[in-house]
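Bug report (template v2)

What were you trying to do?
Predict the complex of my protein with (2R)-2,3-dihydroxypropanoic acid.

What happened?
Run completed; filing so the output is reviewed.

Input:
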Amino acid sequence: MSKLENLVAQAKGILRTNDLGGYTVPTKGLYPFQWNWDAGVTALGWLYVDEARAWTEFDKLFEGQWDNGMVPHIVFHQESDDYFPGPDQWKVEGNPPTTSISQPPLLATMVRIIYEQSKDKDLAQAKLDALMPKLIRYHEWWYRERDPETTGLVSSYHPWESGMDNSPAWDDVLQRVPQVTRPYQRRDLNHVDSKQRPLKEQYDRYIYLVDFFRENDFDYQKIYQNCPFHTQDISLNAVLQRGTIDLIHLNTLASVAADMTSLEASVAKAEEVFPSLWDAERHLFLNRDQALEKAIPVSTSGGFMPLYSYSATPEQAALMAAEIKEWLVLGPSGLASTSPLESTFDAKRYWRGPSWLHINWMIADGLKHYGHDDVAEQLRQASRAIIEQSGYFEYFDPITGEGCGGKDFSWTAAIALHWLL
Ligand code: DGY
């Protein structure tokens, strides 16, 4: 078997091993349920293994959709003692049980890619038609519940909602969240070296927020007013913007077209406000602290995500492409999640430095859109070199390429199948 064939076989094997019957766990042990944005990326990988199975990933995830349209960040399809906080902590009624927050909504974009690349067109059409109303309700939920004042950007209330849990971008905001005082036992440290995971102090605050949502009856109108963690996450907003653009396009392909006027207005409004988060000195976009009503001055890979949502000007895109090249000099093994020049940079600790393949891919996709194919290719080569060196880890030290976090990781395998191999 050639090296390439071997890498492809390994990636496909990881998806099969992590398949628990219609849904894929991110990795066994550490994450024993179905995660929202993992499911979207992983479905993309299934396209290269078993096209029908790619669609099932969405079907299973939407089993957890709330009546108000929200697609939760975790759907607890089965019981497991491997993970904390499980359904007994979130206490969301439902079958299957879920968490009470969401995650970057990349599902519509993944559905579009899979629909366009599918070979079984009849199946793809049937699946698209069935998924459209659910996707539309999900996107409408974001704008209605998370931007009740129509600012153009949606709010997040938990670092887990960003998917970039312990990013230094959230440090100051998280300080305003009290530390929970009740005892609890983390399970992640049974699976991964503590130096690669968030700190206890951060977990104390993460768990406080889990309790806070429950105590506020999951009423996100109320939570909008009083949540101690309240941000406008630039990466999540970019993923939402791109997702809604793709959803509007998918609507033209659906057998029955829906009225997209309100979603079109949301895209237009977001387009107006993205420029306000541009930082002309850092050459990227910043997250926003909603309590202080100001930008959070920390350079993270999320700041390049407006490339992926077509929300930058050509001049800003060129500046970001040059900035990304500089980051790649300091950390050549994929794009660091936090600038290597930030004092908080930590090469192996989750979102404080490591590179993540799905982020590399989304940013490369945006770079290509703006004509920066050379930098996109540099990111692709860097990402390919990491998996050749280290295999399919959850994330990678951007300086050495060492694999970190969970092993045999579904979305890393999926992105390799879709983009690298
Ligand atoms: C975790 O438990 O580490 C997850 O990132 C939460 O979604």
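What did the reviewer find?
The longest strand covers residues 34-35. The chain has a mean pLDDT of 98.
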